[in-house]
Amino acid sequence: MRYAEKVKRDPMQSIVAHQKDENLKHFLHSKEQQAPELTGKRKAVLAIFGLTFAVMMWGVSLAGWWMAELSALFIGSSIIVASSVDSRKLRSPTALLTVPATCSEWP
Fold this sequence. Notes:
By secondary structure, the protein is mainly alpha-helical. The chain has helices spanning 2-9, 20-28, 40-61, 67-82.
């Protein structure tokens, strides 16, 4: 805790203080970065996620679900979410596995 107090008083005492500029550049890209717009498609994906989570809680706690049922639930919801992706925008079959550099590049 002494180290945390020392760094809180003077951030330049941190053992990684020399990396501050690199970290800001790498993680923030710019200080004007905005949150992505909450479009209808994103709202639908969030709703599907919430519904999946609620059904999972109900299934485990009341219906006695276990691995097979939960696997089917997650595969089904994944297929529904994946159907919302515009395949013409994909550069390759692995394009969904790459993380965009900025939030504005998300589908």
